[in-house]
Task: inverse folding
């Protein structure tokens, strides 16, 4: 493929134009785009049901195996800014990194929100002609806020219909359960496609059959575009199996290759797109295994990537998370091949992109039934509460504190999801924020017993899911967050030998001792014994009550994990430090 | 529909053929040598008569990188062969290298099978390599290996 892209680094530093100070950035700079080709793909991923604007701080620690650190998918902070050439304190630096976050948050305001996204989408539709534009959604759309949870996904389907999503795939969508997923797809205007979800119950007619259409062919701007769906390959291990009983996931590169060939040879498409929830690093591996894909529109790992990456001629893009960005990809394709493209990751700066009144009205209507509960002020936070980072983040620590306080356990496990919210230092914490952090369909906190030896093995197992040198053996999340525990970790060590100096309640772990463990959002309770059934309670209720008791929460950003083999949270490529 | 019926039959045939080793996490703690203890190295030695085997692209082993459920891991083995009287695959053996009894299945074939393909679900006690060993009619042994991760589950 001939690559003729001028990468849209966005508003500043993109070449010949003189640098603009942040205050000079205008809507025109955000919209600016060197239009190209005969059609446009607009892309969003992992909005996690954030139909309202929010603050979202990117990670200050993003560690992986040494071969992956500092490569796209494992870049943060200073290393990210250096890799993509970001101007400090610019709008893009605010959207893409944690640096100077509190100050820039005051300057630039909240991010995302469907009313602002719609204005941008309509701008592109008007510029290109609506008949030449497709809007694709990489999934993790229906889950992540109170309004999504309370309406079992329906509020977000309405938001997607309003935005005009054309095609989607899924992951957290499946945590509403198979039947509900199929109901919501009925309400959805978009097509839901997946080549990698297959029936695996031998007693059902759908055994070894596709559950969804594997691909769709769309004609835009005179081109035939084949779009293949790839839902999250590890849904049944990352989330409870009962939601998808009888459905099997997996990457399935063999069948993906088959569909690519089918689209090219039988349907004679001009462009092959994979709409994916594999994760940015797994999709780089997919591009190595499967030939003939022009574009992968990735999701799952929440990376904002201002530039595409190109592997074996396949161009891979990913558009961050939480509705912070829309990716705009203009493509020139005809006669069965792509001749060029242009890409820009467009920040949805809610202070600059005007809200579409219809979107504001829709959001108000969707929230109205729950306004009283969601807007209750539970307390204030002294320091910024955020989610993300490889080992520790303040909002997770607050949840662990709440669980330990109520459950009187030795250890608390909070999952290393990458979705959530950010509450700025000094701000009120409202109930909506608590749902943004832990609004899931399996919210129960379980309290049970685990032997020291088992805890140590489990931690190593979890660490290997995060730090395996081969992205195909990772699951794309961060390390589970532990309350009551400190440890050291050597990420580069081999599986089973990464963790040392494991301390519980300030004392070295006793491998033969039985500890009381609380956990939520995972499968850990299945490994435990003597489940304390009378203590089971939803994590959002536990967290709400704790914040109300405390009134002012003061969680420091100290962290409980010592990283042995890296000097900083955002190392650069080939290095153990930020230098 | 035909394909579906074929897979259903294949599935039930596999359930009968597969020798499923008994192993659980609990067995780890009180692990002791029993009558079913059988290492991969020892099995390979017995099956090949000490000749050993070599990795070959002719053997394709399809198994998930991460098992959705360690108790039933779907695997498919296909061996490239004309399946004629003079050149065919005599047997396909499946091994789970870290299970106590590492042999999961042995399937014996004749040229009448037409194609050397076999699918089954095997039980894996922990993260380990799965090996497919093909016994060829010329007396050589070919393998393919795939590492399969068995985990309690990761993050979202």
Result:
């Amino acid at each position: 493929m001939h690559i003729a892209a001028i990468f849209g680094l966005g508003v500043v530093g993109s070449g010949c134009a003189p640098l603009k100070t942040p205050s000079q950035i205008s809507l025109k700079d955000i919209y600016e785009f060197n239009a190209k080709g005969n059609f446009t793909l607009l892309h969003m991923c992992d909005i996690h049901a954030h139909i309202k604007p929010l603050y979202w701080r990117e990670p200050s620690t993003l560690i992986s195996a040494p071969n992956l650190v500092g490569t796209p998918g494992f870049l943060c902070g200073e290393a990210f800014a250096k890799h993509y050439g970001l101007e400090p304190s610019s709008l893009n630096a605010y959207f893409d990194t944690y640096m100077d976050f509190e100050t820039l948050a005051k300057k630039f305001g909240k991010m995302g929100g469907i009313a602002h996204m719609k204005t941008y989408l309509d701008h592109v539709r008007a510029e290109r002609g609506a008949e030449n534009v497709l809007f694709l959604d990489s999934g993790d759309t229906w889950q992540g806020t109170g309004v999504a949870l309370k309406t079992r996904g329906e509020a977000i389907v309405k938001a997607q219909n309003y935005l005009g999503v054309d095609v989607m795939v899924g992951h957290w969508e499946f945590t509403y359960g198979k039947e509900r997923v199929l109901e919501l797809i009925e309400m959805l205007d978009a097509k839901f496609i997946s080549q990698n979800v297959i029936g695996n119950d031998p007693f059902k007619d759908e055994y070894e059959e596709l559950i969804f259409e594997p691909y769709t062919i769309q004609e835009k701007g005179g081109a035939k575009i084949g779009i293949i769906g790839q839902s999250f390959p590890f849904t049944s291990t990352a989330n409870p199996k009962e939601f998808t009983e009888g459905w099997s996931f997996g990457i399935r590169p063999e069948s993906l290759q088959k569909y690519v060939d089918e689209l090219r040879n039988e349907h004679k498409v001009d462009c092959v797109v994979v709409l994916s929830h594999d994760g940015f690093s797994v999709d780089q591996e997919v591009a190595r295994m499967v030939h003939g894909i022009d574009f992968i529109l990735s999701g799952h790992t929440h990376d904002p990537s201002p530039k595409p990456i190109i592997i074996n001629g396949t161009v891979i893009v990913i558009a961050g998370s939480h509705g912070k960005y829309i990716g705009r990809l203009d493509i020139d394709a005809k006669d069965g091949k792509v001749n060029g493209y242009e890409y820009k990751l467009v920040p949805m700066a809610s202070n600059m992109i005007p809200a579409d009144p219809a979107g504001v009205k829709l959001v108000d209507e969707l929230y109205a039934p729950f306004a009283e509960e969601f807007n209750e002020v539970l307390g204030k936070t002294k320091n910024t509460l955020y989610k993300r980072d490889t080992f520790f983040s303040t909002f997770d620590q607050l949840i662990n504190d709440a669980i330990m306080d109520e459950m009187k356990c030795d250890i608390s496990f909070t999952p290393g999801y990458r979705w959530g919210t950010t509450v700025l230092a000094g701000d009120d914490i409202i109930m909506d924020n608590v749902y943004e952090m832990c609004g899931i369909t399996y919210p129960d906190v379980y309290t049970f017993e685990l032997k020291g030896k088992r805890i140590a093995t489990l931690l190593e197992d979890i660490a290997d899911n995060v730090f395996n040198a081969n992205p195909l053996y990772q699951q794309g999340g961060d390390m589970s967050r532990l309350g009551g525990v400190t440890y050291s970790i050597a990420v580069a060590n081999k599986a089973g030998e990464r963790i040392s100096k494991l301390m519980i309640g300030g004392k070295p772990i006793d491998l033969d001792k039985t500890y009381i463990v609380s956990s939520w959002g995972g499968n850990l309770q299945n490994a435990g014994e003597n489940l304390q059934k009378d203590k089971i309670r939803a994590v959002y209720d536990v967290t709400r009550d704790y914040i109300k008791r405390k009134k002012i929460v003061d969680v420091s950003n100290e962290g409980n994990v010592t990283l042995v083999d890296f000097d900083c949270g955002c190392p650069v490529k080939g290095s153990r430090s930020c230098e | 529909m035909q394909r579906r019926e074929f897979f259903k039959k294949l599935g039930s045939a596999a359930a009968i053929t597969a020798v499923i080793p008994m192993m659980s996490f609990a067995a780890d703690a009180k692990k002791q040598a029993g009558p079913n203890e059988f290492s991969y190295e020892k099995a390979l030695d017995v099956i090949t008569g000490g000749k050993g085997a070599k990795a070959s692209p002719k053997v394709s082993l399809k198994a998930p990188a991460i098992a959705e459920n360690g108790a039933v891991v779907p695997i498919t083995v296909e061996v490239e062969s004309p399946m004629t009287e003079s050149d065919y695959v005599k047997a396909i053996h499946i091994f789970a290298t870290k299970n106590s009894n590492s042999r999961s299945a042995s399937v014996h074939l004749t040229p009448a099978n037409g194609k050397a393909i076999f699918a089954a679900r095997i039980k894996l006690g922990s993260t380990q390599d799965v090996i497919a060993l093909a016994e060829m009619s010329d007396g050589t042994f070919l393998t393919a290996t795939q590492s399969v991760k068995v985990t309690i589950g990761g993050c979202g």
Summary: Chain A has two domains: 39-54+110-363, 375-563. The domain at 39-54+110-363 of chain A is CATH 3.60.21.10 (Purple Acid Phosphatase; chain A, domain 2). Chain A touches chain B through 46 residues (CB under 8 Å).
